[in-house]
Amino acid sequence: MTSICPQCGGAGVRVLSNPGGGSTIETCSCQVEQRVARLMKRAGIPTRYEHCSLDSYEASFPGADRSLASAHLMARRFVDGYPATTGGRGLLLTGSIGVGKTHLAVGILQALIVEKAVHGLFCDYRELLKEIQNSYNPQVAVTEMEILQPVFDAEVLVLDELGAAKPTDWVWDTVALVLNTRYNDKRTTLITTNYADLPPGGVAGQNGASRGPREETLGDRIGERMRSRLAEMCVLIEMRGEDFRRTVRRARFG
Do the strands 90-95 and 120-124 form a parallel or antiparallel pair, or are they unpaired? Predict the structure, then answer.
């Protein structure tokens, strides 16, 4: 059963008396809270990340790399300046596993919803590709465009784990469709990836000598053409450090 707001009695507005006489009608705070709740639900943030906010992001624990505090500061400035100073540009958060890229991206999205009433969407890169592939099954009553349209239309999209799926021509074409559509529409995209923002070819050792298996780059995973497109779409934020989940957030009982 839905409770009735004690401030407006369920009317959604409040009538305030002015000191000099007369009255003013204003929207009740309960309406703002309900709108935020609806936007949060539509954003589809996974339960695991619902707690992620800019305030809860830890960037100053012992041994933390300075890049984490810098990334946190840039994230806060991005929210404060949106949309006037961002101009449709998003962020590309790169770094190794467990440095808090997804936490920061979700924190930005949640802050934009609360502070700017943004219509946002969280999208896992691998899950999106699986959903699209599944739509080709004639027994599934959903089309590829029905899956992609919310991704195209979201005012702010979090695209998590870009490059995580094995690169194929179909994957590259799908990535190109999503990124180019959002680029042309000047939609803001927040992207996380475990791959360095470098062209295809991997990371060479010192003096060009190879040291162990070649590390794949973002260019390897999504193609150089799309990596170049990202340079126009997003401001790069590099996050360095140890796996946060294996140190500060390591699972334990009790």
Answer: unpaired
Which helix H or strand E contains 157, and what residues bound it?
strand 156-160
Assess if residue 20 is contained within a domain: no
pTM above 0.90, yes or no: no
Report yes or no on 54 lying in a domain.
Answer: yes
Instruction: Dump pLDDT digits (tens) for 136-149.
Output: 998 888 999 999 99
Q: Can you give the residue range of the structural domain that contains 127?
A: 25-246
Q: Give every CB contact of residue 179 below 8 A, 6+ residues apart in sequence.
A: 189, 226, 229, 230, 233
Residue 208: give its domain's CATH number: 3.40.50.300
User: 213: cis peptide before it, omega within 30°?
Assistant: no
Cα separation, 45 vs 164, in Å, equals: 19
Q: How many domains does the chain have?
A: 1
pLDDT, one tens digit per residue, over 32-50 is 888 999 999 999 999 999 9
